[in-house]
Predict the 3D structure of the following.
Amino acid sequence: GGARSLATLSFLDILQAIAPDLVPRTAFITGGVISATVQEQVIRSGRPLAYKPFQASQLLALVESLALAS
């Protein structure tokens, strides 16, 4: 929980600092159970969170929505 939480925040903070234009084009994907803390942080970030397994069409829709983000 704690390390993943820190990694999530660190990634977003660093991306915001060096390439803020990419933040709207960022999503998180998880293949397992995530802690309530991490989930809350992702929700607060406003970035999409996709849970595996997902259908190819769902991933394509996510990528397309991110590509259109500004």
The CA atoms of residues 27 and 48 lie 5 Å apart. The first strand starts at residue 28 and ends at 30.
